[in-house]
Amino acid sequence: MTQLRTPVNSNDHIFGNENAPLELVKYGDYECPYCGRAYPIVKDIIQQLGDNLKFVFRNFPLSNVHPHAVSAAVATEAAALQGKFWEMHDIIFENQKTLEVEHLFLFAHKIGLDLERFKNDIQDQALTDKVEKDFYGGLRSGVNKTPTFFINGEKYEGDWSGTHLLEYLQNVLTKVSA
Amino acid sequence: MLPTGTPAPDFELHSTPDQLLKLSELRNKKVILAFYPADWSPVCDDQMTLYNEMGKYFAKHNAQLIGISVDSKWCHLAFSEDHKFHFPLLADFEPKGEVAKLYGVFNEKTGECQRALYVIDEEGIIRWSYLSPVGINPGADGILNALEELDNVKSTN
């Protein structure tokens, strides 16, 4: 079983209960259509599992096939500096076919970011480095396509479509809380 | 598959419709040979797309990646252009699968290469290999481990 080599830590974007019995890590690419399909599925899972789930998103941009993936990832990191990572993450996945720079600024405006600050922050090399660090950590954990999920540190090899992932998580929950 | 510690057999195949690539031309570089079943198929697509992102990580180890399948040079050209690959795809097309056979990774039943990886060092010696189940994308971690190990061994000598 492939393990998550970089444990969830304070550099991660964490949604939900930090002490939840279930930890779901998604390695994703903002321009990848499969990640786009997984987005509402994960939203639903977050809602269904509530306090039992901690969700983490990590970047895995495949930049040659998805030329906007890195800049979109950097935009979410810049939004995080203003405390709005998840707002940016969501609006990008909801509009993943339009990810030119002007769209990223439009999203920044829509979610209420300070645009001057956003403009400066997206040029900060440290944010690009963070995205790359996510990518490399994913490589070393055996991420081989997007999206790739890890559940409580173990790579999920099953089908994530429909309710498969939710049902799997519910099973794990029953086991860990038994 | 060929055992580690043995010389990698030399070969020459088309890398583009008008260019040939010979393995021995790449001495002084590590070479990652990635045999895969077929251009355009879903798992190969994911695997090569992943490797295409790894140029700079491979370069750090002085390593060059090469993909090999039995598809023709024209098929490779289209696949490569479509996916914007930055590494060569070699056509083991005529005689079909000759190089794959030489490396013990030809599937006689399907007439395709198996999904197999070899890491070859600067002197042309096989240092690591891996045969993946055909439906599973082996990712890149195994290759990176092998490259790191090779560089560590060298730096401690």
From TrEMBL, chain A:
Give the similarity note: Belongs to the thioredoxin family. DsbA subfamily.
Question: In the record, what lineage is assigned to the organism producing the protein?
Answer: Bacteria, Pseudomonadati, Bacteroidota, Chitinophagia, Chitinophagales
Q: Where is the signal peptide?
A: none
The name under which this protein is listed is DsbA family protein
- Cited Pfam families: Thioredoxin_4 (PF13462)
Organism per entry: Niastella soli
**PANTHER family documented for this protein:** GLUTATHIONE S-TRANSFERASE KAPPA, SLR0313 PROTEIN
Q: Which residues form the Thioredoxin domain?
A: 1-174
From TrEMBL, chain B:
UniProtKB keywords? Antioxidant, Disulfide bond, Oxidoreductase, Peroxidase, Redox-active center
Cite the Thioredoxin domain residue spans from the record.
2-152
Enzyme Commission numbers on file? 1.11.1.24
Its recorded reaction(s) are: a hydroperoxide + [thioredoxin]-dithiol = an alcohol + [thioredoxin]-disulfide + H2O
Q: One Pfam family this chain carries? A: AhpC-TSA
Its annotated function is as follows:
Thiol-specific peroxidase that catalyzes the reduction of hydrogen peroxide and organic hydroperoxides to water and alcohols, respectively. Plays a role in cell protection against oxidative stress by detoxifying peroxides and as sensor of hydrogen peroxide-mediated signaling events.
Name the family the entry cites.
Belongs to the peroxiredoxin family. BCP/PrxQ subfamily.
What is this protein identified as? Answer: thioredoxin-dependent peroxiredoxin
**What is the originating organism of this protein?**
Niastella soli
